[in-house]
Q: What sequence folds into this?
């Protein structure tokens, strides 16, 4: 697990440096349980602003148009993403997917558990950063 996390964290750090700070309302300083708690809005995916095209073929286009992480004081975790799906010959539609779990904090990292899986969410420069299925997500309060 540590062999995978170190390269992931290095890539996330590079993305943060490339993104820079774009929202002065996000917390600064070290991550605490108190600063972690709240609603974090999805701002960038792979350093691109929303909407982000996640998949595109001649028949279908899928964009991520919104998202948020809700970190609860009760240790609950909620990840919401709204996808806009356009298929040839059909009306465009938005669909929201929700994933729930729990979290713990060690230093500037949240360890999120969803079912039997777990993954890190890194706090850096006022952002929460996560990697999922080849995409790098940046969230700010």
A:
């Amino acid at each position: 697990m540590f062999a995978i996390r170190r390269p992931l964290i290095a890539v996330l750090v590079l993305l943060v440096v490339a993104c820079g700070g774009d929202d002065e309302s996000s917390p600064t300083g070290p991550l605490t349980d108190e600063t972690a708690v709240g609603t974090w809005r999805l701002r960038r995916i792979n350093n691109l602003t929303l909407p982000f095209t996640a998949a595109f073929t001649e028949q279908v286009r899928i964009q991520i148009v919104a998202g948020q992480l809700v970190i609860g004081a009760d240790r609950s975790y909620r990840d919401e993403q709204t996808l806009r799906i356009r298929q040839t010959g059909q009306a465009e539609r938005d669909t929201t997917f929700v994933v729930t779990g729990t979290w713990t904090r060690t230093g500037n990292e949240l360890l999120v558990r969803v079912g039997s899986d777990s993954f890190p969410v890194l706090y850096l420069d006022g952002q929460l950063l996560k990697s999922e299925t080849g995409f790098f997500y940046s969230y700010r309060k």
Q: What stands out?
A: The CA atoms of residues 92 and 119 lie 32 Å apart.
